[in-house]
Amino acid sequence: MQRRLCVWYLIPAINTKWFVTHFHNFNLLVAIYHLYHSSVILVTLLGNTFSDDSEIHREIKCLFTRTNLLIRRFSRCSMQVKVQLFKSFCICFYNIGLWENFHVYCLNKFASAYVKCIKILFGFHKYSSFTNMLLQMGLPSFNTVLYNARIRIANNLHLLDNSVVSVSCRL
Fold this sequence. Notes:
The protein has helices spanning 53-74, 79-89, 104-122, 130-137, 142-159, 163-170, and strands spanning 7-10, 26-28, 31-33, 38-41, 44-46. By secondary structure, it is mostly helical.
């Protein structure tokens, strides 16, 4: 069976003079890929603004998609089953610990989406106390999830013996 790597190129409509317009080619799995202003490579968005806002919006969409899937398939399950399913499917965010350059409103939208998904999945009222819900179910808050992801990334980077990674961590 032959494996294929799918790369999706996005070219932004607005061209600015502040960024380099031509990037060098890079080799990946013996194939040459050209980089443009904005590219999606291995489900990571690389844009010409070097902002993580597009990644945050993508994670918001994925969170709502996963929550809707759990609601449709497991609406009649017990609270303990739903909690385990939510921990398994909805709290695993891709590269959340690497986000450094983003607007605060994007992260606030993500936090409110996290709260909304929990309230919808577990059938709580719109105006219910979120702290009380988290304590009842034993789920972490959004800030805890973000903090744990950043700490996990930092610990994993310090454990590596790779010289390239250790030099880039010092930068």
